[in-house]
Amino acid sequence: MVYGDGLENRCSCKGTVGSNPTPSATIYGLDFLYKTEGRYELTKEEHYRKLERMYASAPTTKYYMSTIQVSEGHAEVILPVRHDFLHVAGTAHAAVYCKLLDEATVFAVSSVVHDVFVLTASLNIYLTRPVSEGEEMKAIGRVVHCTRRLFIAEAELVDSDGREIARGSGIFMRSTIPLSPEIGYK
Predict the structure, then answer these.
(1) Strands across the sheet with 150-158, in order?
(2) What residues are paired with 151 via a beta bridge?
(3) Minimal CA–CA distance to 113: which of 40, 11, 182, 31?
(4) Where does the signal sequence lie (predicted)?
(5) How many domains does the chain have?
(6) CA angle, 51 as apex, 37 and 7 as ends, to 5°?
(7) Would 9 be classed as within a structural domain?
(8) Which of 92, 162, 178, 184 shows its CA 20 to 30 Å from the CA of 20?
């Protein structure tokens, strides 16, 4: 992702880390650097890698064998379609589409929230094309708007040839669950 793409204009709210407001801890700013529990400083890139490790540690991720890449306001989730993802008509079940669109949008939002886990409040999806076993599905999520409490993100899901197979958008919110090693954020 190229920094300065305007995300800071779409997400105008500023954040703080813990209970100590820090001028350099602008969650959506390009000069992001903050302290976690007063012990060390964490850069944006370190935050993104921790989110990727947290994603990889989830049981559902291990089952589906999907992968993720996170950057500022953006996330991409890739999944090869296996036989056990198909419904009786021989194409991927809508639940697989939903999983990828949800994860791409949640982790796009998580890239700009640095202290707590992000939850999906609402997710709308539109399935536009079937996908078959052996193809790859890639969800590309991005943050489009945020306030202090709610975030809006959207994602496009494409097949191996880059054709859109689904689209989704949702509303997301901060939880009370801290980002910590206990939930895989390490």
Answers:
(1) 67-71, 74-80, 136-146, 150-158, 164-178, 116-127
(2) 146, 172
(3) 11
(4) none
(5) 1
(6) 95
(7) no
(8) 184
- Are the beta carbons of 45 and 56 closer than 8 angstroms? no
Distance CA 25, CA 31 (A): 8
User: Residue written as tokens 């054709």?
Assistant: 163
Which CATH number is 127's domain given? 3.10.129.10
What contacts 49, CB < 8 A, 6 or more positions away?
A: none
Hunting for tokens 């079940």 — which residue is that? 93
* pLDDT tens digits, one per residue of 117-132: 999 999 999 999 999 9
**What domain range includes position 140?**
43-183
64-88 pLDDT tens trace: 999 999 999 999 999 999 999 999 9
pTM score of the predicted model: 0.81
